[in-house]
Amino acid sequence: MDNSKNDSRRDPPSRGFAREVAGRFFSRKLACLATLVVIFLTLVAIFAPVIVGTKPVVCRYKGGIYYPSLGYLDREWEHPIFRIDKFRNNYAKNLPKKDPDSWAFWPMVYQDPIRRVRADEKEGVPDSETLQPPSIHHLFGTDPAGVDVFAKMVHGTRTALLVGFVSMGIAALLGIVLGAVAGYAGGWIDHFINRVIEVVLCVPTLILILALIAIVPKPTIWHMMAVIGLTRWTDIARLTRGEFLRLRQSDFVQAAVALGISRAAIIFRHILPNALAPVLVPITFGMAGAVQIEAGLSFLGFGTPPPHPSWGEILDDGRANLTCWWLVTFPGLAIFATVLAYNIIGEALQEATDPRLRDARR
Amino acid sequence: MMRPLSCLSVGWMIVSVVMADEFTPPALTELDAKASWVDRPVVNTLEKLTKHLQAKKRLASDAEVLALKNDSKENNAKILSTLGRQPIDPKEVNWNAAWNRRMGGEVKSVNPILFSSVSEADLGSYINLGLFSFDWELQPLAAEESVKSWQSSADGLYDKVVLRDDMTWSDGSPITAHDIAFSYRVILDPRVPALAVRAGTEELLGVHAYDDRTVVFFHKAAKATNVWNINFPIIPKHIFEKTYPADPSLAKSPEHVAMETNPISGGPYTIVYRQRGSEIVLERRESYYMHQGKQVREKPYFKTIRFRVIEDSNTALLAVKSGDVDETNLVPEQWIKQTDGSDFYKRNTKVKEVEWTSWHIVWNLQNPLFKDKKVRRALAYAFDYNELLERLSYNLYEPSSGPFHRESWMAPRDYPAPYQQNIDRAEELLEEAGWTDSDGDGVLDKDGIKFEFDLNYRSDPIIERYCNVARESFENVGINCNLRPLEFTVLVEKLSKHEFQAAFGGWGTGTDPDTYRNIIGTDQLRNYGSYSNPEVDKLFDQGASEFDRTKRGEIYGRIHRQLFEDQPYLYLYWRSSFYAFNKDLRGYFMSPRGPYNYGPGAGALWRVAAP
Questions:
Q1: What is the value of pTM for the model shown?
Q2: How far apart, in Å, are the Cα atoms of A131 and each of A321, B130, B312?
Q3: What CATH number should be reported for the domain holding residue B142?
Q4: Which superfamily does CATH assign the domain made up of A149-361 to?
Q5: Which of B5-14, B191-200, B346-355, B503-512 comes out lowest in average pLDDT?
Q6: Which of A75, A82, A305 has the CB atom closest to B485's CB atom?
Q7: Would the CB atoms of B461 and A322 count as touching at under 8 Å?
Q8: What is the ipTM of this complex?
Q9: Chain B partners of A114 at a C-beta cutoff of 8 Å?
């Protein structure tokens, strides 16, 4: 401590690696913007049932408080009382009819991501026609089934983001652990893991997913995420291994070894935090890739079947109805923006963590 | 009995020996003495169609109709009656014209006995010699182009055909009765992958050529369906008897590979160019309609037929709009939304007609969920037909209530009205069947089993939308329905193994109602839902051995009513044909199997000569 105080006369105190990187990262305007985009999308994904839907966010019915809009996340989470009381998906009509004392807090926009809104469902909301251009009632138009594209887009955000986060979560876990073990242990373990990486690199993700859809009796979005995760960890593992090879020789690791700290502790407590920053780069790029894969699969008709809206599926409808520009423009822009944001973040991270790149910019 | 595998190495001789053992034809004199022959129709289908159309009134003039938009029933009738006509004067026809047709999928082979798909059937009508055909009322007949006389024995066991003596293959050698007997043998050879063609042909007892002109078909039993079994494609004996023993796959040897691009044709056209996956070009064959300097058959209207392989329906529509192809079928969305503007009407017009292809949800009756008739009826009441018919298919489809179309001769006189959505009735029926929500989770259950099932369908956005209506409808009565799209081949495999709960599908009409037995008869091959009703089986037996069409119609009508009662399928709608045609094309007549698959079918179309 004393030493550092003395040094501070010549140099400002070190802010620590994480802060340093964060500082450099946020000094870039584009990176800030991209981060904002991702935060915005995350908020949209989380609050999708509040933004648009035909099920109340909160309602009071027959003396109880319910959250029917959770049904958009999972059918099971919608309280069965509404099915038992034969609401038939029509809350706007049935709530006041079946319980005059009920009240409900409605989503901001009354439209549904998985079904067409019928006439006389709610006052002021007209019958949804198929393939309508954007209007005051349908902000982004309607699809060939008459479903509101805005509602599909908002609820589809969840799928898009979830695919990125979950699949890359799996990939990161696998990649970091295997990379760390390979880099630290060296020898035949390193050799073996490297060969595994090479084998996995040869497996084309898209084709594996298509094969999986044919084999698995009930393929869901989670299967898809698992496959993406299980095939996309190689870059992360390679980078982690490289970092470990470098750090293994450093003084603080030698000190830890000398102190007799266990291998696991050295790998995960001492080296890993120092190796993590560069590893974030392939993870963000991977997220962009995963979003693209999901949209691509849905576009090809191999995505998740209804009732799970996805951006790629809207694009696919657009392909069949080329004159309906709104079916192409909005999901196209959304996919573009998301992938671009992830890529910008990845690139900014790369420059912020790699001193050579940082210095080259000066 | 013969096992296909064991005879592989021994070769072709074994097959013919076994066949000879099984069936020895009697001498013709003996047969003539035994059978009392009844003459059957030998028809020039084009002439028959021309007469049929002349009797109908033309509703408008060409110019008037070409300026019309097909946006109403009246206009559709006007266009069909005017542009669907045959030429009054041969000068009206552009005899040097080409017709650019769209082919929805690549043909696997151009050898007619290996055909199985729609594309292959389309091609087959140009290069295959056909003895038999059927008209737009699905009445069987012998084609005047190739048959001099056709007689059936009064006991229904034999069919005797005398061929014309002015027919040649495209290489100049004569077409004889021996070609027919030879083709029969090849089709029945288990080593030949002629699965689709073999299906009816194997019902025959034998086929024998008595001389170059006379061939007799022998049947195992007297059945009304025999007439369809004698209709199989014919290949040239003088070519294939040399190449076929060495390569029974008909696809692997160098000779057979060469024949894929340059086959010998027995039909009105020959293939002059073939690029796999993209194009097949056919030229009119002079030796077909001319014989020794004299015209002996109708001259085919087009000089050139060019098939362009375009799988995607959107691409096909763009090709029609730009004039690259002259015809395509349309999907409802295209009919309503994309063929309204001048970009379409500049070069084309469009027509529609009901086709007897019925779409449905098939329930797997082996599954305890669907065993009870009441449950199946409840599901039929729960379905939101309006959403499917009005919204998703723009009122372009007719609702369906069973296997036979209202206007067909097989339909019952008291035709059952299709189901209408009635959720209360559905709930009542489910409760009667014992399905209630006893555990209060919002989903019906019975004996501890939740009412939740998977609905399989071919992965296709339009079909998915229809299935989504089913999902929503069933959810409203407390049944969870999960949508599970499958690739088409996987779907068919699962269906034939009965490894499914419910599936969305359709059946096109066969040429005879007896073909429906294969779909709904007990333990039949394509009875995916395992429906079984002895009453229906008995009716099929009766129908097959009854020769009077009116009486047959009554029998099949009873089957229709029984199926409506039992609801093994949730009958949804009849798919219509929607076609776009270039404005220069004439002569399209819409049969229950669309404009091409009947006699004369595609042969009726012609291109108008420039004025």
A1: 0.78
A2: 9, 46, 20
A3: 3.40.190.10
A4: MetI-like (1.10.3720.10)
A5: B5-14
A6: A305
A7: no
A8: 0.81
A9: 468
